[in-house]
């Protein structure tokens, strides 16, 4: 099935990533990652921007109110949902300036997971971590390269994860007590179709995967079979999330990083599609 997208914003980001919809926020937030900015889209279509540091990798709501931002090498917390509210750091997670945070998300219990990568994408330099209650990071998966998309099945028993350079989306078993285990391939992306980047899981268990350099979003059913494609007018498609009042719009972020804007003038815009299936509420963090 082919699904047509439409434009939601102008090309406002150089490297748009990590879209998240929260009713508490009144709309969509995402990051212009390497500019270190969090962006917000309100119901009137206005885009606001807040600078948080050298990198803004992930934004997520907190259970207690406010939001979390994963910055270059630290987690930042706000106690208010206001985009411009003060942020406090939980401390530098590592000291190596060659490694930065990249993508992450939360499990149904509110544990926050965050991945890392080398700025030069050197193989095996990244890790995938879970944050302990105080914010310290513990390695869950070592020696990954570009730690990327992460989300859970509707019942919380499975987690989906992409290390982009593998060309796969993997699936892991998820247990509320013991965490993640049993990593195995879920879907393999033909390199000619791009590489798996951000992902989200819909209410039916379908996995929507943004394809970096692929100009598309793929939906894989719960058995790992490709059954829907959203084709974009730009090549560097980065991440997806469901939003809107009924969680029935698929929002798609894109990148203009090293792109000829004359050739791809909409690179860096946010797109949306109406796929005929609903998403799920974003999983907030207990941090």
From TrEMBL:
<feature type="binding site">
    <location>
        <position position="148"/>
    </location>
    <ligand>
        <name>a divalent metal cation</name>
    </ligand>
</feature>
<protein>
    <submittedName>
        <fullName>SMP-30/gluconolactonase/LRE family protein</fullName>
    </submittedName>
</protein>
<comment type="similarity">
    <text>Belongs to the SMP-30/CGR1 family.</text>
</comment>
<feature type="domain" description="SMP-30/Gluconolactonase/LRE-like region">
    <location>
        <begin position="16"/>
        <end position="255"/>
    </location>
</feature>
<feature type="binding site">
    <location>
        <position position="17"/>
    </location>
    <ligand>
        <name>a divalent metal cation</name>
    </ligand>
</feature>
<dbReference type="Pfam" id="PF08450">
    <property type="entry name" value="SGL"/>
</dbReference>
<keyword id="KW-0479">Metal-binding</keyword>
<dbReference type="GO" id="GO:0005509">
    <property type="term" value="F:calcium ion binding"/>
</dbReference>
<feature type="binding site">
    <location>
        <position position="197"/>
    </location>
    <ligand>
        <name>a divalent metal cation</name>
    </ligand>
</feature>
<dbReference type="InterPro" id="IPR011042">
    <property type="entry name" value="6-blade_b-propeller_TolB-like"/>
</dbReference>
<feature type="binding site">
    <location>
        <position position="102"/>
    </location>
    <ligand>
        <name>substrate</name>
    </ligand>
</feature>
<dbReference type="GO" id="GO:0004341">
    <property type="term" value="F:gluconolactonase activity"/>
</dbReference>
<dbReference type="InterPro" id="IPR013658">
    <property type="entry name" value="SGL"/>
</dbReference>
<dbReference type="InterPro" id="IPR005511">
    <property type="entry name" value="SMP-30"/>
</dbReference>
<feature type="binding site">
    <location>
        <position position="120"/>
    </location>
    <ligand>
        <name>substrate</name>
    </ligand>
</feature>
<feature type="active site" description="Proton donor/acceptor">
    <location>
        <position position="197"/>
    </location>
</feature>
<keyword id="KW-0862">Zinc</keyword>
<feature type="binding site">
    <location>
        <position position="100"/>
    </location>
    <ligand>
        <name>substrate</name>
    </ligand>
</feature>
<dbReference type="GO" id="GO:0019853">
    <property type="term" value="P:L-ascorbic acid biosynthetic process"/>
</dbReference>
């Amino acid at each position: 099935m082919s699904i047509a997208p439409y434009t939601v914003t102008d090309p406002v980001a150089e490297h748009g990533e990590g879209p998240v919809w929260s009713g508490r926020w009144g709309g969509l937030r995402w990051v212009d990652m390497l500019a270190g900015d969090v962006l917000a889209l309100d119901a009137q279509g206005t885009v606001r921007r807040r600078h948080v540091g050298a990198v803004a990798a992930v934004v997520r709501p907190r259970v207690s109110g406010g939001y979390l931002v994963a910055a270059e090498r630290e987690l930042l917390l706000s106690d208010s949902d206001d985009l411009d509210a003060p942020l406090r750091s939980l401390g530098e997670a590592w000291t190596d300036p060659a490694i930065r945070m990249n993508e992450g998300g939360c499990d149904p219990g509110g544990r926050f997971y965050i991945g890392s990568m080398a700025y030069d994408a050197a193989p095996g330099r990244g890790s995938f971590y879970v944050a302990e209650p105080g914010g310290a990071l513990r390695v869950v998966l070592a020696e990954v390269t570009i730690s990327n998309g992460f989300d859970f099945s509707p019942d919380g028993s499975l987690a989906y994860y992409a290390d982009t350079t593998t060309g796969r989306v993997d699936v892991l078993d998820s247990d509320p007590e013991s965490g993640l285990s049993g990593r195995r391939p879920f879907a393999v992306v033909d390199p000619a179709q791009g590489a798996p980047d951000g992902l989200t899981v819909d209410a039916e268990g379908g996995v929507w995967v943004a394809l970096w350099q692929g100009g598309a979003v793929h939906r894989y059913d719960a058995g790992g079979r490709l059954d829907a494609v959203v084709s974009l007018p730009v090549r560097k498609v980065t991440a997806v999330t469901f939003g809107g009042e009924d969680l029935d719009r698929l929002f798609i972020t894109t990148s203009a990083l090293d792109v000829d804007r004359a050739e791809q003038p909409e690179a860096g815009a946010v797109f949306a599609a109406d796929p005929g299936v609903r998403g799920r509420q974003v999983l907030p963090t207990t941090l």
